[in-house]
Amino acid sequence: MKTITVTIRTSILLMIIVMIYQLAVTGIAQVFMPHKANGSLVYDGNNQLIGSELIGQTFVSPRYFHGRVSSIEYNAASSGTPNYAPSNPDLLRRVQNSVTKWKADNPDVPVNNLPVDLITNSGSGLDPDISPASALAQIPRISSLTGIQKNTLEKLVIEHTQGRDLGLFGEERVNVLKLNMALSELLAK
Fold first, then answer.
1. Are 124 and 81 in contact (CB under 8 A)?
2. CA separation for the pair 102, 119 (Å, rounded)
3. What parts of the sequence cross the membrane (predicted)?
4. Cα dist. 164→81, 169, 189 in Å?
């Protein structure tokens, strides 16, 4: 009986410690970085929720920049992607379909200049970013469809390119949602 009592007391004590820890971490995050603590949500000029900086979205209009391929259609309820081996026929088929779609949507850009992140999934299937090269490769299509000069679009990509974290970690990247919001502002003018 003594063992059961000790076990119950220890369990209750540990639950209380864990709850206090969670409340403390949440409180600290809300005070020091509320934007990140609340999901890095992005709003438009009318304070309308557009999405999150952390979760990619599907942009189907050819007038906008497109993100990476997502096997889960950017459904944040679960993340992940099939982890196919390079020899897997399903991976080859998916990449071939992506290349075929790229050729149809971007006839002015040679396939040998196609950045690999535009035809491959990220590990989570939710990646909101593309490489600067992927954004730049889409400029001919967007320029011809919108009438916006290529050099203006290049400046837009450069303005929205984020460097490596702490100058060391990760790669340069462009958040597709933020880039497309800036493009929408240009189109509205």
1. yes
2. 8
3. 12-33
4. 25, 5, 32
